[in-house]
Amino acid sequence: MNHAGKVIEGLMRAELDRYTAANPASRRLAERAAEAFPGGVPLHWMRDWATPFPLFMAEARGAELIDADGHHYVDFCLGDTGSMFGHSPAPVVRAVSDQIARGVTAMLPTEDGVAAAEALARRFGLPFWQVTTTATDANRFVLRWARAITGRSKILVFNGCYHGTVDDTFVRLEDGRAVHRPGLLGQATDLTATTKVVEFNDLAGLEAALAPGDVACVITEPALTNIGMVLPEPGFHAALRDLTRRHGTLLVIDETHTISTGPGGWTREYGLEPDVFTLGKPIAGGIPCGVYGFTAEIEARMRRVEAGVPHGHSGMGTTLSANALAMRALRAMLEEVMTEAAYAGMVDRARGLAAGIEAAVARHGLAWHVTQIGARVEFHFTPTPYRSGSEAAAAMRPDLEQLVNLFLINRGILIAPFHNMMLTSPATTEAQIARFHDAFDACAAALAGHA
Ligand code: PMP
Q: Which family does it belong to (predicted)?
């Protein structure tokens, strides 16, 4: 190991000791949990943090989280977007508290649902909507619809994408060949037979993949946000829309993360024209809910294919989806929380957050860069942005990521345990951002000359 590697390892050891000493209550809970949950957690992602044992949450409000040992954190992870508008926003607390005593789920529609659909249509410019329990489900059902209405079996994704646990999208490029993503357990079908994968920003590759006319849909985020951030090059989205139209391929835009851009997501901010739009995570304030919206043309095509099969089990929908509680929360978020004013504040604070990171990086001579999509900010351990998922994957530094994550936790700051992702919420204050800058500066100082 070279000198820099040894320095990083030494810093990590010190941070692990510091965390262990500071968190006896979390440690006791982790020991109990290990008896009940394989790996000690009810969802394996909860093990992905850099901590030697999970930090147990006691409560959270706005942009602050309190752990089982009573430490207060400024939360920039915000449930990896599920709480992007702050933990337990007051309008959602009011709405959910009222609704939970008036019936949670009845498999019948409610007026709140109608109002929510009208609000979605106004906000995102698509007339028709369906509701699911997660963003994963929204994407899975949309792929099914796309195949059903086009009569084509294939889909296309960009290398490095993530759209939830939708197996069809767990395909990667390896030396230019499509392969299953390592870790895709128990999948018995060769997904590469029906999923094409090309690099983001590779328009020639995209055109070649669409040319045979066998691709039902392209599903993509407006910018890749799950492999670090890969931003579209100028003209990419216009060309993507043109090529998909030309080849009879539907365009599905997944805004689950890029809803950070602004009130209408990237789609409205930059005038994208998707056939289908999907979104989940924060839209019902963390109450499980996903949605997909589509054009009148897609709706007509859906009705045509539905008319040709017996009514009933389409493979789309789950029992608890669109229940009265979720619809009430969704309505409250759209009408009272995800407002223009809320976005203006959070995006402005994200700018300040990013500027302070850039200043610390420059001060300590680190060759890192920062990207921002509205209220979403990330720092990356390379001097220049990535053009593709492959470039982003090659630049990953798990050792540094883990160290920075734990260093910040030990100083009262939570950022996402993946690729240094941070969100500012409407509740995030300037003082909280200053706290982050202090901790980040200390981390950058410790790493100066070694990263
Ligand atoms: N789409 C995107 C772009 C995502 O990043 C994610 C989750 N990270 C999902 C969909 C799936 O969300 P969920 O796990 O809530 O179903």
A: Belongs to the class-III pyridoxal-phosphate-dependent aminotransferase family.
